[in-house]
């Protein structure tokens, strides 16, 4: 469980980097953790003064599943939107969708889990990028 602060997203990103170290999906996973963690704080009760979010990593030699669970607070399901070229926000879920092989969103307005699955190509099993 991570406290709902911006600093905690930085720590979650660092923790992801430490856990995955030389995994071929490490770079993409780190970016996805940053985007999903930031979205949880910005768009849900996870960003409230006593809010939290939960980060879970599941991995194998070629895959990583990144799950971020928020505290809810919005009735609508997260969705990707097209950001104006001059916007400074609004691209998070689109970035995640571009990087992930699969994206699942489960839960309700009382808390959702967004899971992004990364899969390295067979020739990348020994590489350092996904």
UniProtKB/TrEMBL annotation:
Protein name: Histidine kinase/HSP90-like ATPase domain-containing protein
Domain Histidine kinase/HSP90-like ATPase: 7-117
Gene Ontology terms, MF aspect: protein serine/threonine kinase activity
Protein's UniProt keywords contain Transferase: yes
Record's keyword terms, sorted: Kinase, Serine/threonine-protein kinase, Transferase
Pfam families for this protein: HATPase_c_2 (PF13581)
Domain of life, source organism: Bacteria
Feature: compositional bias, Basic and acidic residues: 71-89
Record region (Disordered): 69-89
């Amino acid at each position: 469980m991570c406290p709902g602060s911006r600093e905690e997203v930085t720590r979650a990103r660092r923790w992801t980097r430490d856990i995955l170290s030389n995994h071929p999906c490490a770079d993409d996973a780190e970016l996805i953790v940053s985007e999903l963690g930031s979205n949880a704080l910005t768009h849900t009760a996870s960003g409230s003064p006593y809010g939290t979010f939960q980060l879970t990593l599941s991995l194998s030699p070629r895959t990583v599943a990144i799950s971020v669970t928020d505290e809810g607070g919005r009735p609508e399901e997260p969705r990707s939107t097209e950001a104006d070229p001059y916007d400074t926000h609004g691209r998070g879920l689109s970035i995640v969708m571009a990087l992930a092989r699969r994206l699942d969103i489960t839960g309700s307005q009382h808390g959702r889990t967004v899971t992004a699955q990364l899969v390295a190509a067979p020739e990348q099993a020994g590489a350092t990028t996904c």
